[in-house]
Structure formats: structure tokens, C-alpha cells
Design a protein that fits this description.
By secondary structure, the chain is of the alpha/beta class. The protein contains 18 helices and 14 strands.
């Protein structure tokens, strides 16, 4: 009858034979920025032209022909995962119990408090988003912390508001960014991602804004940047805290004026994009140190969502574990995996997961390779349970200057070059390890290496 998922932005459907109730609920939802479709009967809803399931269904009980409870049973039978909120003037306790047992989110009676109704519907949309993204290997989780993230994403998705996602690496910031895009009015447009930490300053600027032919050596033809590529859709800027001050200043204009120029260009181009930024750094701290512009921070920090680390939502570990085993088994083994032993599950739960969901997925993939089609056991896991909760030793503090400055002064440039050379040597020329030793991002290390001709 109804497809379980859809790629378009799915509406909230209101089914009620009372026209005044239909329009009152529809008006409430539209004022909240949601897309709404209304129907006077269950059969009219079934016969609607769109075949994908709605993001939430607001349903009366007593309807002509087919009742709301009968429609619910039919949706359950068809395995259509639709969050249902009953809104009726004729409910009783046995009826509400029956509806809730069959999977309804809530059973509300008329007249209803509009804030309560809107809150339940937004909860349903958040649940729907979690199911849809989870089906694709993303937003799995039942903890209240993760549900709060999904609920916030559901609230902001229909708006054009700039969103700032914060959290440790591997917590799922890009997953949530995709989720917001999929539920937005820009869902038909592209989702374009750019990792600001992966590129040195000059390359980041050209990737973001694009360039004209001859803008710099090697620019043999004009090229559209990510801002143009994302036109009509969403631009996701990962690790936005790694932007250099010069790029920050240029990007601020994009947020203020919604326009920009390609490198080497003179023509102003419109920035028809929704911005979602992400960071694993504390931008307030970076702002106080002068590493991040205050005006840009407040332009990005319109609607902030913090993603908790996996160690703070341990009830999500086993559902994620099961999902990754089911997802990766056929890929790694060519068939479904045998499963996970009880002892291995205990190890997964005991571990602190400093790399969060990304580390969990990698651990499952490694274990599937090592178990060779059998059960995943503790010996297939890349850690020891006894050290699971042991935090890494803190970095040594900088040694204090006990003898004062030399009379001739210090050559900070030479000291910095010496430190970088020493870190590279100790790390075996591995740039990522050297950056970690120096407390720098990889992009900032590359910038300093270019300055000292060490690249």
C-alpha cells in the first residue's frame, strides 16, 4: 500500500472527518515550518497520489468507512513504519491502550493543548528520521541523549537556519547533517561536504569559493567551488574550527550577504545554500585565544546541537553493534555473520570508545575478518578489557622558563622550525602523528611546514 521510505521531504498527514479540526491542526504545523497534507477519511489517505509514508500521521479514531484503528492495523500489517498520533473526541481507556499497544506514539483527546500536540508530532518526526537514517547505517540508538539529538534535528530541519554541530570525532556529526538535509525543504538539492581540516589554507579557499581561469599558477580553466556545487541544497563544513583567519573573514561575508566571488573573479555570485557546520573543538575557547572570529562564531551558532560521546550513551552500543554486524557481515564475509558471543558483548560494553561510533564500526569490521565466519569472541577485539576504562596519560605540560630570557632574545621562528623537525623525525615523517605530538591539526602543520620549506 505505502512504501516504507522515500527520498523526498515527507509531509505530516492529518486524517480527520471534521474540516475545522483538519485545518486547525494543519495551520499549527505549517506555522512550525512543516509540510502538511490533509484527508477527510482513511480511504482518501490510502488513495493519495504519493506512495511514500508520511513523516508522522495525525489520526482520528471515528472516520467514515474505515476507522483510524483499522487504518493503524493495516499500516502495521503492511510494515509501513509510520509514527501515529491519535487525536479524537471519542476516546476511552481501552481504546487508547489498544492504540498504544499497536505502536501509536500517543492518544490525545480533543480539545488538545497545541504545544502538547506539536511536541508529540515533533517527537514522531524525530523517530521517523532515526529509522530512515538508521536503515542506511547511520542514526542507530535508543538512549534519551541520542533521541534528544534527533528531536532537535527534527525541529530545525524544516527551517533555513544555520546549524552548528559539536562533539568529539566519530560521534556522527555528518550523519546528523545528512538527516537534517533529508528532512529539509532543500532535500531535492545536493548535499555537499567539505572537510576544512583536510586542506591547507590556499586549497581550502579555492575548494570553497572556486576560481577563474588564470587565478593562480595551474588554474588552466575556471572551476566552481563547493558553494556553487551546493546551490539549492546544503553545504556541510566539517571541522570548521580549522579555517584560517583569512578564509574565516571571506566566509563571514557569505553568511552575512549571501554572496561571494570566485578567486580571481570580479562577478558576485549568490550563495543559495543552507549551511551546516561541525566541529570537535571548543570554538568559545578558540575565540578567546583569537583563533576563531567572534562574529563568525555567532553567525554559525544560531542553532547548536551537541552530540554526546558513545561512552555517555552506552545503551546504544549493543544496537549499534548488531547493526554493524548485520551490515558488514555480507561485505566482509560474503554472507551473514554468525553473531557475537556473550563474552565479546561484555567487552564491547566495558570499553570506553574514545573514537566513538566510528571506532566501534572499525572494531566490528576487524573482528569479522579475524573470526573467519564464526562467532565474534574477545580474542578478536583490538583491546584488553582490563584496560578498557583506562584513560590515556595526559600530555606533559610545557616546561616553565626558570632562568629568564637570554639577553640577545629568542628566535621563535627557529624554535618552531626545530620543534616541527623534531616531531617529524620522532613520528617517522608521519604527518598525522607529528601533528598530534605538536598539538596541532594536520592542516595547521602543513601550513607551518610550507612556511619553513619543510613540505
Amino acid at each position: 500500500m505505502i512504501a516504507k521510505t522515500g527520498d523526498r521531504c515527507r509531509p505530516v498527514c492529518v486524517v480527520d472527518d471534521d474540516a475545522s479540526v483538519r485545518e486547525a491542526v494543519a495551520s499549527l504545523l505549517r506555522s512550525a515550518g512543516l509540510t502538511v497534507e490533509t484527508f477527510e477519511s482513511a480511504r482518501a489517505f490510502i488513495a493519495r497520489p504519493r506512495r511514500d509514508a508520511p513523516s508522522c500521521l495525525v489520526l482520528d479514531v471515528e472516520l467514515p468507512g474505515l476507522s483510524g484503528l483499522d487504518l493503524q492495523q493495516q499500516l502495521v500489517k503492511d510494515k509501513a513504519q509510520v509514527p501515529i498520533v491519535f487525536l479524537t473526541g471519542h476516546g476511552d481507556i481501552p481504546m487508547s491502550v489498544r492504540a498504544i499497544k499497536a505502536g501509536a506514539l500517543d492518544f490525545l483527546t480533543k480539545p488538545v493543548d497545541v504545544d502538547q500536540l506539536l511536541g508529540v508530532i515533533q517527537k514522531g518526526i524525530a523517530q521517523d528520521l532515526g529509522v530512515r537514517v538508521g536503515d542506511k547505517g547511520g542514526a542507530i540508538g535508543t538512549s534519551h541523549l541520542w533521541r534528544d539529538v534527533l528531536a532537535q534535528a527534527a525541529k530545525v530541519a524544516p527551517a533555513e537556519t544555520t546549524v552548528l554541530l559539536s562533539g568529539e570525532s566519530g560521534t556522527g556529526k555528518e550523519v546528523v547533517a545528512h538527516l537534517i538535509h533529508q528532512a529539509s525543504r532543500r532535500v531535492e538539492g545536493p548535499f555537499v561536504a567539505l572537510n576544512c581540516a583536510a586542506l591547507p589554507e590556499a586549497l581550502l579557499e579555492s575548494e570553497l569559493f572556486g576560481y577563474e581561469k588564470g587565478a593562480f599558477t595551474g588554474a588552466v580553466s575556471a572551476r566552481a567551488g563547493r558553494l556553487e556545487q551546493a546551490a539549492g541544497g546544503t553545504l556541510f563544513l566539517d571541522e570548521v574550527g580549522e579555517m584560517s583567519p583569512a578564509v574565516q573573514a571571506k566566509f563571514l561575508r557569505v553568511l552575512q550577504e549571501r554572496e561571494f566571488q570566485r578567486l580571481g573573479g570580479t562577478r558576485m555570485l549568490k550563495a543559495d545554500v543552507r549551511i551546516i557546520a561541525a566541529t570537535n573543538r571548543d570554538l568559545k575557547v578558540a575565540m578567546t585565544r583569537g583563533a576563531f572570529r567572534e562574529d563568525l562564531y555567532y553567525r554559525l551558532h544560531v542553532f547548536a546541537i551537541h552530540l554526546p560521546p558513545l561512552r555517555e550513551r552506552k545503551e546504544d552500543i549493543l544496537p549499534l553493534l548488531e547493526h554493524f554486524v548485520d551490515e558488514l557481515g555480507p561485505v566482509v564475509l560474503g554472507r551473514a555473520a554468525a553473531g557475537i558471543s556473550r563474552e565479546a558483548r561484555a567487552h564491547f560494553l566495558a570499553y570506553a570508545w574514545p573514537g566513538n561510533v566510528r571506532e566501534l564500526r572499525n572494531a566490528v569490521e576487524r573482528a569479522l575478518i579475524l573470526c573467519e565466519g564464526g562467532l565474534i569472541n574477545p580474542e578478536h577485539l583490538p583491546w584488553h578489557a582490563e584496560s578498557a576504562e583506562s584513560p590515556p596519560p595526559p600530555a606533559a605540560p610545557a616546561a616553565p622558563l626558570t632562568e629568564g630570557f637570554p639577553a640577545h632574545g629568542l628566535d621563535l621562528e627557529a624554535m618552531e622550525r626545530t620543534l616541527i623537525e623534531g616531531a617529524l623525525k620522532q613520528a617517522g615523517q608521519n604527518k598525522s602523528k607529528a601533528a598530534k605530538l605538536l598539538g596541532l591539526s594536520r592542516s595547521k602543520l602543513y601550513t607551518r611546514m610550507e612556511r619553513f620549506s619543510l613540505a
